[in-house]
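User: I'm putting together a teaching handout on how sequence relates to shape, and I'd like one worked example. Could you take CPBP family intramembrane metalloprotease from Gluconobacter potus, show the sequence you're using, and then write out its predicted structure as tokens right after it?

Assistant: Happy to. First the sequence, then the structure tokens directly below it.
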Amino acid sequence: MIPRTWPEAGLAFLLCLNAGLGEELFFRLALPLLTGQLTGSLIAGAALSTLLFGGMHWYQGLKGVLATTALGLIFMIRALNGTPLIWLMGFHALMDVVALFIRPALSGHFSRKTVRQPAVRPSS
């Protein structure tokens, strides 16, 4: 998911902002409330939401799932204790921006041009 070019980095930046806003709205607000309504337990909603949030990051491997589940739990506890959702959204987006945009940029990871794959010519 780490971008390879500056144009991809711009899209990654927008993706980070979207993830911060969308994932926090869904996993810290909508899903816990909906599950809480269906089960009668806000704790069940919070637990399910936290586990699904971590599991959604399966593409990062086991360490990524465990780390995002732990962060999701911290965020859920903060949300349940009254931290404004907009703060959680901002912090989530900031963490993603650092991981997908700032760290690769500081390491010189991006090239100026789009990486092109060599053309495959059919054999005769």
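A couple of points you could highlight for students: The radius of gyration is 18 Å. The chain has one domain: 6-106.
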